[in-house]
Amino acid sequence: MKRQFATFLLRWILNSVGIWVAVRLLGNGNSGATSAWTFMMAGLIFSLVNSTLKPIVTIFALPAILLTLGLFTLVVNGLMVYVSLALAPGFSMSFGSFNYCRDYIEFGKLYYK
Fold first, then answer.
1. Burial of 23 (0-12, 13-18, 19+ CB in 10 A)
2. Cα dist. 37→13, 34, 50, 63, 91 in Å?
3. Is this structure's pTM higher than 0.85?
4. DSSP string spanning 7-30?
5. Roughly what angle, to the nearest 10 degrees, separates helices 73-87 and 36-60?
6. For residues 39 and 98, what is the distance between their CA atoms, to the nearest angstrom?
């Protein structure tokens, strides 16, 4: 039991650090998350969602995962992030950097027509 709790604490801390890095790199600047406690709570919510909801969603998405040779797990992971951010109080993040990638692709389509 101690080992499972220690593993959960380690995942909680690593998820909190990962969310902090993601907000700093991909955040929109007005996420409202500046305190370490905000990131710790978001990491806790993310850890709880991953440990409870993700196995259920993965089982239901198993046909799509097998059909796409595992690529659908990216959609499942994105859904877990979306649910976690929706549950986190006072915490919002938009992945604006992906819009830049989309703009570059659209520019390439127009330029190389």
1. buried
2. 11, 9, 20, 39, 11
3. no
4. HHHHHHHHHHHHHHHHHHHH--S-
5. 140
6. 22
Structure tokens that stand for 19 in this block: 């969310």
Q: Under a CB-based contact definition with an 8 Å cutoff, are residues 80 and 49 in contact?
A: yes
**Residue 84 structure tokens:** 């976690």
Q: How far is CA 79 from CA 1, 12, 73, 106, 109, in A?
A: 29, 18, 10, 25, 29
The whole-number pLDDT of residue 81 equals 84
pLDDT tens digits along 54-111: 999 999 999 999 999 999 999 999 888 888 888 887 776 665 555 555 555 555 555 5
Identify whether the C-beta of residue 45 lies closer than 8 Å to the C-beta of residue 88. yes
